[in-house]
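Can you make up a polypeptide sequence alongside its tokenized fold?
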Amino acid sequence: AVGRAIVRDPACFLFDEPLSNLDAKLRVEMRAELKRLHRRLNTTTIYVTHDQEEAMTLGDRVVVMSDGLIQQADAPLNIYNGPVNRFVAGFLGTPPMNFIDGQLVGRDGGVFFEAKGDVSVRLEGQKAELAAGHVGQPVVFGVRPEGLFFKANEHANNEAQTMEFHVDVVEPLGDTIDVYLSAPASEKRAVARVKAQKIEEQTKYRMFIDMNKCHFFETGEYGVNITLAQNAVAAK
């Protein structure tokens, strides 16, 4: 079908989930082949997919839609690193972003996110400045799986930016592992994607947080990202 379309030299290609019926290995191969074709033909291509990896790897510009409305349109990495609302944040990324309900509190001259189970995470820099206007309000804390670490490192080393979790399940993926976490006292659940290492199941760990992988949202499915600078400018 692609070949028949190419020989007509169209002004635009329209793809509607073309790889959905392929097995995993062939899907990856065809994804790369479609990207090669696009570069060679240099023809505008509109590609519809529910697969986040396809959107991230194939798109020069990604449009995230929900209920017929555009939620965000931008370059793939811009959307991944700066989701405008909670829906977009949870839609892009595998495993998806972790969400924890809580509130912002002002104390000791700073801004903190607090949740049930003695959770207290200090905000710093621009995030603290942008969130300051929401102190005293309920918010949703979002952190990417790759933003959680079992040990302090160059990305996350502040004791004031940690959370205690119980390790439920460890899934080895080769050079990385997915670790499923819970905190029974607060009903929090999360998943961390970290470098392959020995992690004991049914054990408690204090997880270090990379605040660059974190966002704070207003409550609700489409809660606005209050720690995204462009949202703050738009609000003004």
About this structure: The chain has seven helices and 14 strands. The two ends are 49 Å apart (CA to CA). The mean pLDDT is 93.
